[in-house]
Amino acid sequence: MAFFFILIAFLWFIRETKAILFWLYLWQLKEYRFGRFFDHFRTYQGKKLFFNFFFIFKIILFLYVLSLAFYPKLLAWQLYALWIVILAVIYFFEDAKTVLDFFQKNLKKPVLTQKGKILILVSLIVEFLFLFILFQKFQKIKLFYWFSFSLLSFDILTPFLVSGIVLLFQPLTVYWQNKIIKRAKEKRAKIKDLIVIGITGSYGKTSTKEFLNTILSSKFKVLSTPAHQNTDIAIAKLILEKLNEDTEVFITEMAAYKRGEITSACQIVKPKIGILTGINEQHMATFGSLENIIKTKYELIESLPEMGFAIFNGDNQYCRELYKKAQLSKRICYTKFLASAQEVVVGDFWAKEVKAEKESLSFKIFSRRWGEIFEFKVNLLGEHHAQNILMAAIIGKEVLGMTLEE
């Protein structure tokens, strides 16, 4: 009988370890923010985590096993083997998928940061202790039923157990993050002549940052935030690791999922230039309303100094409204002509004759201020890139004194 205990425990352990790593990966991906983590389950991918064949079948099996308590003992004993064999078969197929994912390098697991290592260690200790206690308590032939049922129960509750462990460490995480942010602020304050450019919006942040980095790097020593590292704590870590006295321009992409997060990032980096790439209803679930999204994105503009400079995407309705509201040096640019009976838009810059071809994008920049036209041609797909390149080019020429040729 010991063989069957070991067999099902082994199959369960492989499956359970994969599940623990996945849920820790998801929490890390959502930056350990409950709002972002919960919002994930509104998406198709999030719903599939619970509404899939294996999970639903396990729930049915769980309810079936509970119902056996209402049957006579003789009948229940006859049914022991049936559901336990089914459970073992399920774990076998899940383990086979785990092995396949491992060799194909598709296994989802958290990045081994200091916090990630601690959470993995604690979660695996809980898993080991649970299995050890089960062996000590139920390693008798008549208790194989409850042994297997306990494994199934732990399996189903894994998302909640892992989430509980993550949330248990949150107070320590907040304390640790505050220390990092404080150190980053102190280091940033020592670099007096640094030009900081903040970029925010519901879309277009990353591409605008990359275009700006490419343009400015030809003349300046530039540091920019890496992909997906756009929160206050990620920016603070980058400052501590890579910002130095030689850096002339620091380009920071800023993301937010609630009010005050853009302000928090700005308090760290002290931007002099702000770019608002566009606003839509993305992350509505975490913000609560479109009004909150608009106010949060505008925090970047509000954080700029009196002598600061702001650029707005004129193709976006909400950016046009915020452009009118801003009380500092500002520019607005378009790739579309917008006019109505109530409002005729006269912008500072236009991208005209936008042509998206198979392997390239071309357009002409017209400036009411410069009184000149310059043609751009880049190896990119998609007309939407014209707006992002336009905003990046304006920063280079208007603020940093570069020529359009540069």
Automatic annotation (TrEMBL):
Domain Mur ligase central positions: 199-395
InterPro entries in UniProt: Mur-like_cat_sf, Mur_ligase_cen, MurCDEF_CellWall_CoF430Synth
A GO molecular-function annotation: ATP binding
Pfam families xref list: Mur_ligase_M (PF08245)
Xref: Gene3D superfamilies: Mur-like, catalytic domain
Transmembrane spans: 6-28, 49-71, 77-93, 118-138, 144-169
Keywords for the protein's UniProt record, in alphabetical order: ATP-binding, Ligase, Membrane, Nucleotide-binding, Transmembrane, Transmembrane helix
Highest taxon listed in the record's lineage: Bacteria
Name the UniProt record assigns to this protein: Mur ligase central domain-containing protein
